[in-house]
Each structure stands twice: as structure tokens, then as C-alpha cells.
Amino acid sequence: MTETTPAIPDLEDLLDPAVHLLDLSDELATAIEDTYRRAVDLRDARLAGKPVDLRALLIAYGGLCALMAQAQQQLQRMGEAIEATPLTVPGADR
Fold first, then answer.
1. Does residue 2 sit within a domain?
2. Which of 44, 48, 55, 60 is deepest in the core (most CB within 10 A)?
3. Is the pLDDT of residue 12 over 70?
4. Domain membership flag for residue 64
5. Domain range spanning residue 24?
6. What DSSP character marks residue 89?
7. pTM of the model
8. How many domains does the chain fold into?
């Protein structure tokens, strides 16, 4: 690195959160679907005049919230890495 070349953060700082987000994508899709199904089950039980038990929906919702929090953390990490990366314009050094 010279005095005129800014330090470029390790590319792993950008790639690591992206990989984690990709890993979370299937889990998030499953959690969203599960939460939806539990809500539909609750609606159907209510329409059928059956007792309504919120526990299954609350458990599914809690799991979805936890996964969304993990995704938000990874997005924040990625944003911080992007902000730390200097903007370069191809051909600007010519």
C-alpha cells in the first residue's frame, strides 16, 4: 500500500455477511410459511367454532422474529463493510 492508495478492507468483510444471508434465506422462507400456516389454522379454528390456541402461532412468530434479527445484523455488517470500502472509478487512474 502506498500513501496515495487507500487501504481496502478485507473482502471477507463483505462476503461473510452475504454468505450468512444466503444461508438464512431458506430458513426465513420456511419460518414465514410456518407463521402463515399457523395464522390460517387459527383463522380456520375460529371460523369452525373450535377453541383457539395461540401457542403454535406465537412460537412460529418468535422463530421468525429471531431469524429476522439475525438477517438484520448481517445486513448491518454488510453495510458497514460497504461504507468502509473506498469508492473507485475504473480508468480514473489513467
1. no
2. 60
3. yes
4. yes
5. 12-84
6. -
7. 0.74
8. 1
